[in-house]
Amino acid sequence: xxxxxxxxxxxxxxxxxxxxxxxxxxxxxxxxxxxxxxxxxxxxxxxxxxxxxxxxxxxxxxxxxxxxxxxxxxxxxxxxxxxxxxxxxxxxxxxxxxxxxxxxxxxxxxxxxxxxxxxxxxxxxxxxxxxxxxxxxxxxxxxxxxxxxxxxxxxxxxxxxxxxxxxxxxxxxxxxxxxxxxxxxxxxxxxxxxxxxxxxxxxxxxxxxxxxxxxxxxxxxxxxxxxxxxxxxxxxxxxxxxxxxxxxxxxxxxxxxxxxx
Length: 261
Known about the structure:
By secondary structure, the protein is of the alpha+beta class. It has a domain at about 15-170: Roll (PH-domain like), CATH 2.30.29.30. About 45% of the residues lie in helices and about 20% in strands. It has helices at about 25-30, 30-50, 60-90, 130-135, 160-195, 205-215, 245-250, and strands at about 15-20, 90-95, 95-105, 110-115, 120-125, 135-145, 150-155. The strands form 2 sheets. A 4-stranded antiparallel sheet has the order 1-2-3-4. A hairpin with a 5-residue loop joins strand 6 (about 135-145) and strand 7. The protein is elongated, with a radius of gyration of 54 Å. It starts with 15 loop residues before the first strand and ends in an 11-residue tail after the last helix. The model is unreliable at about 200-260 (pLDDT under 50).
């Protein structure tokens, strides 16, 4: 496990679990042919020194040295580019994601990544005699991202790499489930507390709206004071037997009128 390894774009509290490069045999295998090219000027020098008498003369030998110097300069530059491509072409496995850093030449770098929760499956591919003998191969990771296949190529112990990636996926999924559960509990507690409260208090604005919505009633007229009638009903009094002055004038003798029985 890398200790203290840092890279651009590393998130806070993110831990690096694996730092993978291609197997060193791949570097040797790709550059084996250049070892033959490296020995060509040496063979020319040996042949010219022992079998060609004019080779060490003034015009030939200095020109040969100049050409060999230019040849080895380009050769060393090519080896430097190959080494940079091998060393900086890495795969980083963290506790949150997978990162592929693809170094192309001296001044180009392509970085791609996928989250651990997007991993669906991982398979191991070991091909060839050298892959079987030196225990290196490819790890193909099926994801739900836009780039559906995430490939880790020619790395040592691909079976162990696959197991580590799937183990980190399980731990990440478990951690996300715990965080989701711990976040959901306070929200559910607040909702239950709000539903259990017996009364609801209105804000002043709500009270003002409720009072303004109720229609106002006109004031009731003042009731007249009732004299001798507690119930307030109209007073039906029977007139007395005393006659009005007009009736007495019509009947001066005091005779009863025809209307009396």
